[in-house]
From TrEMBL:
Name of the protein in question: Cytochrome P450
PANTHER family: CYTOCHROME P450 26 (PTHR24286), LANOSTEROL 14-ALPHA DEMETHYLASE (PTHR24286:SF24)
Required co-factors: heme
Species whose genome carries this gene: Alloalcanivorax gelatiniphagus
Gene3D superfamilies: Cytochrome P450
Region (Disordered): 1-20
Domain of life according to the entry: Bacteria
């Protein structure tokens, strides 16, 4: 492999160019990175160190690896990196003007308004709505026998999202809307990035149109009355200085929020099912904790009491970061660890990879929730070693919502079933978009009450 500098360093500068290589002609390292992102990044880290470039999706991308790089990029001192410039290439046509794709002052303006939908009282209201819906959803699961976790959990989180976010049941529209969400998310990693009927990109665009229509039709009713769902909250959210969202803003934010909430929690729950099936002693520990609460539906104050679940969720998020990599684009020339990265360059930081770095995590492949316990706190090794929710100005606004939803579902599942996978089963992960079990995660349920 010939090492090629990313760009010529300005004359007189003492900086070094970013080393790297383009990979294969035309496709670069795209397929390698989709098939085995951690393995590919490990190989590059070993060859080039924390900063290198390669060709992915037809772009030259600088991969900035490790906790220091996460901190540097995510904290974004001096506004060197644009979120819009990074994400727009991947998901812009499907999620344009979503808050994650806005930058700097405009982003802060939108975030201040959106924050009104995530206050503690708002979260308490969402949790109250969720409890009975979870019970309804789980009532449709078989008492025992085999199930595929991924489609079941996806259905449940989508039903919850439509109820808690939209304040309505989708009824017969559910299938079409679910398809639209799946298509918009998968389109982001399409290899052919223009509309060819039947392929990912064009299905994503069609999905976007379906969602726009769905939300647009509902806005007048939401503006006219005040419900306790998130859609209503966005329609009525007003900052102290009187700023509010336009109808277009509400549509864009709803589409982005539904996607951001639904897929990420589905992935987290699937991984918890998997890890708890392989580690039955942990499953039992969490069940005892849930039984001790002596109630089916969680209230907000219960969330902190579920210590074991809290540890297990953190560990599941470490082992499988639902958003594996965060793209940005430099808005001016950047200097990092003596390297020169010119303005206009795509860069990524990679939570998925950081979470497996032996430099931070002893025995990183092992499911070991106690590593987050007060006695050990391995995550304290670096403030940006554990970054499933990102960091800085764009840090996940829904992290408490996610924690609440995952706990509320897992708690009710633990109260009803034990579940298992065959001895030696290892879940194959499809990493061609957000990471999901390739086989849907087959487990066997056993109802015990
Ligand atoms: C386990 C579940 C979740 C994970 C792992 C997760 C992860 C992330 C990450 C890594 C980012 C930062 C992206 C970046 O910096 O480029 C992010 C942003 C965001 N997340 Fe989440 N998320 C989760 C759940 C949720 C939920 C439940 C919601 C909404 C209810 C949500 C809403 C958002 C929003 C709106 C942003 C953009 C924030 C901004 O740009 O200011 N997320 N999320």
């Amino acid at each position: 492999m010939t090492v090629t500098p990313l760009a010529r360093v300005p004359s007189g500068s003492t900086l070094k160019p970013v080393p790297g290589d383009p990979g294969l002609p035309v496709i670069g390292n795209t397929l390698k990175s989709l098939r085995d992102p951690v393995g590919m990044l490990r190989a590059r880290y070993d060859s080039y160190g924390p900063v290198s470039w390669t060709s992915l999706f037809g772009l030259r991308i600088v991969q900035m690896l490790g906790a220091d790089a996460n901190q540097f990029v995510l904290m974004n001192k001096g506004e060197l990196f644009s979120n819009h410039g990074g994400w727009d290439f991947f998901i812009g046509p499907f999620f344009h003007r979503g808050i994650m794709l806005l930058d700097f002052e405009e982003h802060r303006w939108h975030r201040r308004i959106m924050q009104q939908a995530f206050t503690r009282p708002a979260l308490q209201g969402y949790l109250q709505r969720m409890g009975p819906r979870i019970a309804d959803g789980l009532a449709a699961w078989p008492a025992q026998g085999p199930i595929q976790v991924l489609p079941r959990v996806k259905q449940l989180t989508l039903d919850l999202a439509t109820d808690v976010f939209m304040g309505s049941q989708l009824g017969p529209r559910a299938e079409r809307i679910n398809r639209a969400f799946v298509d918009t998310v998968r389109a982001g990693t399409a290899l052919l990035r223009f509309p060819v009927p039947g392929l990912r990109w064009s299905r994503g665009l069609r999905g976007r149109r379906v969602l726009e229509q769905l939300f647009r039709e509902e806005i007048p009713a939401k503006r006219a009355s005040r419900g306790d769902d998130l859609f209503s909250a966005l329609c009525h959210a007003t900052t102290e200085d009187g700023h509010r969202f336009s109808d277009e803003d509400v549509v864009n934010h709803m589409i982005f929020l539904m996607m951001a909430a639904h897929d990420t929690t589905t992935i987290t729950l699937s991984n918890l099912f998997y890890q708890l099936a392989r580690n039955p002693q942990w499953q039992e520990r969490l069940r005892q904790e849930s039984l001790a609460l002596n109630k089916e539906q969680l209230e907000h104050d219960d969330l902190e009491r579920l210590e074991g679940i809290t540890l297990a969720i953190k560990e599941a998020l470490r082992l499988c970061a639902p958003v594996p990599s965060l793209p940005r684009r430099t808005v001016r020339d950047v200097e990092y660890q003596g390297h020169y990265i010119p303005a206009g360059t795509f860069v990524t930081v990679a939570p998925y990879f950081t979470h497996y770095m032996e430099e931070y995590w002893p025995d990183p492949e092992r499911f070991d929730p106690e590593r987050f316990s007060e006695a050990r706190r391995e995550d304290k090794v670096h403030p940006f070693a554990w970054v499933p929710f990102g960091g800085g100005a764009h840090k996940c606004i829904g992290l408490h919502f996610a924690d609440m939803q995952v706990k509320a579902i897992l708690h009710q599942v633990l109260l009803r079933w034990r579940w298992s996978v065959p001895e030696g089963y290892e879940m194959p992960v499809d990493t061609t978009s957000l990471p999901v079990p390739k086989d849907g995660l087959p487990v066997t349920l056993e109802r015990f009450r």
